[in-house]
Structures are given as structure tokens and as C-alpha cells.
Amino acid sequence: MSYYFCIVNTRDQPTFELEFGTSKQGGDGVARFSQEARELNPFLIHASLDYVDDMQWYTNQMYLKRIDHIAHAHISAYLTPTSTRFLLLHLPHPPNTAPIPPPQSSTSYSPYGAYTNAFPGTSFNPTSSVSSSSTTTSSRGGLGNIGSGGGGIPNNPTSPQTEEAVRLFFTEVNEIWLKSIMSPFGGPLEGIGSPVFRQRVVAAGKKYL
Fold first, then answer.
1. pLDDT attached to residue 17
2. Is-above-0.85 flag for pTM?
3. What pLDDT is recorded for position 37?
4. CA–CA distance, 98 with 163 (Å, rounded to integer)
5. How far apart are the C-alpha atoms of 134 and 20, rounded to whole Å?
6. Per-residue model confidence as pLDDT tens digits over 82-91
7. Radius of gyration (Cα) for the chain, nearest Å?
8. Could you give the dihedral angle defined by the CA atoms of residues 72, 74, 58 and 209, in that order, rounded to the nearest 10 degrees?
9. pLDDT per residue over 108-137, tens digit each?
């Protein structure tokens, strides 16, 4: 799984952006978006803000779960009490797998579907439903176990394990963010350039995703 995380303030301006990859199942934590996807990620995040704005009136939950998707990429959202939005775009693929380059003569290439043929002959299928993948309880009591259908955190953004892991990631980042905006030198509308903040978000990503 490759992730693009963005914090958007109440003026719909990004104040923090981070790309990272899964650290589960031997993942090295490096995002493997294609160049095309990298350029499109901020636009997809911005386009999903309308869904967040609509959903906030119908729920009292801060974690809104998955709110949008394009091809095999999904976007999850978290709404803070100050209406700052945390958005996470996740693109499933086998750990440490590079995207397939676009064909020279094709006009239907999708940067968010570039991994679907990466492992021909294997069971990896990011579009498989949650019900088709079996899950088990971790021997270590943790999250993100893989069923026979590839339903764990690095592969399936629709699995209950992934949704719970994303919730825990958002919750920890929210705590880090609250400490950051309490600084007299910043605020919820300001960009976050602190290397300590970035390191702690990266650590939360490694811990849960």
C-alpha cells in the first residue's frame, strides 16, 4: 500500500503533506506512486473535501472512514472538532512493488490501476470484497492479518483491519497535531514545517499502516 496523507485547514488549504508506504508484511515504508499519481494526488484530495463537508452534518463521529475512491485508490477522512480535515489516500499493491509504467500507445492508462497486473498468477486483487477474504486473529494481538484473498492492511483498503488501522493512525496524528497548534508560533491555519512533527507522523504510519 502506498499512502498520501494531507492535513487541510478550514480554508481548504493544505498545511501538511506526506507520502509513505506500508511497513507491514516486510514493507520498507516507501511510497511507490507513479509520477502521474503523484501529480494527481493533491487534486483527488481536494476534490474529496465536498464529501467531508456534506458528511459532517450527518454524523457525530470524527472518523468518517472511506469517503471516496477512484479506480483502486481510496480516500479516508477524519474531521477534527475545529473542522480541520485529515485525508489519507491509499493505493493497494504488494509491498515493495513498483508501479507498471504506462504503455506507449494506450490512452486508457490509469495511474491508480497500475498495480493490478503486477503479480500475474497470484491471489492479489485490490478490488476483492471484504466478504471474500478470510481474516484471522494475530498471534501477537495486533492488526493487519492477511487472509487467503489478500485482505490485510497492505493489500485491501476495504478490510475491517485496514479501517481500524487508519482510525488509530488518525487518532494518534490528531494528538500530535493538537500539540503542534498549541504552540504560540503556529496555529490551525498555518503550514506545519516542524521536522519533529513530520517524524512523529512517519512513526505513526509505521506503527499502524
1. 95
2. no
3. 85
4. 24
5. 27
6. 899 999 998 8
7. 17
8. 140
9. 445 665 444 433 333 334 443 333 333 332
